[in-house]
Amino acid sequence: MVLNEERQTILAAKRLHLSQPAISVMLKKLREQFNDPLFIRDKNQLEPTIRCQQLLETLPPILDKLDSLYIDNKDWDISALSDDITLLFSPPMMSTLAAPLVNTLTALAPNVTVECYHWGFDAIRDLELKTKCWGFSYLPMETNNTILQKDIGIDKFVVVMRKDHPIKAFQLENMFDYPICVNIIYGDVNSSRSEKIIKMLNLNKHINVRTSDISMMLSMISTTDYLGIISENNISHLKDNYRFEELPQQLTEEATQRAFSLFTHQRNRIDPMTQWLFQQAQAIMGQAIMEKSK
Length: 294
Fold this sequence. Notes:
Blueprint lengths: L1 H5 L2 H8 L3 H15 L4 E4 L2 E4 L1 H19 L15 E6 L4 H15 L4 E6 L4 H7 L3 E6 L8 E16 L9 H4 L4 E4 L9 H8 L8 E3 L2 H10 L3 E5 L3 H4 L3 E5 L5 H5 E9 L6 H21 L2
Parallel strand pairs: 3-4, 3-5, 7-8, 7-9
Antiparallel strand pairs: 1-2, 5-11, 6-9, 6-10, 6-11
């Protein structure tokens, strides 16, 4: 898995605190066991074979099952917790995920104090330094080998505007007639994908505002001709006051969908709270999608 993420044996060795020859020996053994090259060199990086991709898809649930062998939830009582817990959320998730998750947590564990704030530039440092700290954000995310990542699902982004916005035909060129506001996602190695695609297509349009504050974006949208790009999970509690449209097809799936994950320090890998937060996040985001479709 690490070799697939790094695509170079020297980088994989550094991340796993091994020598490069050790990685090469391990890869040779795996190739013999699976009777497949697994990775093929393409210029300066390794590319997974079809067989390797199939194996990679099966590994996450297997690793989760291995983790469960070390987790003893029988004696874990969430109501008995009394720790201070820090939860970090990417700004677009504050209303859709943070609010219901924190509400459920504090209801079940009334003696817990939750410190909740935006996933910012120091998020990875906070996850490393704070003992009881978990975060939720979008991928791809630049982390390191001390951080555990548990993939939760896919979020989709849509365009939001005031109900009586003058835009009619919803094509990319029509969008460009109006000012545009996007979310800042801190720590993202490819921040603002819609903006990136617009530049790649050599389209003569710039983003007017980047903000981490959804409430600021909505305030601007409600009183002006601004168009905003936000998570579709906001639709269920905003649909009566705003109008929503799919992003134009020219922006492709890469710009309209984002995978998101739970992050914490490896020391919390078998902490029952890690699995509880993961399961709650899956349930909340799944419920938001169901309500949106109604």
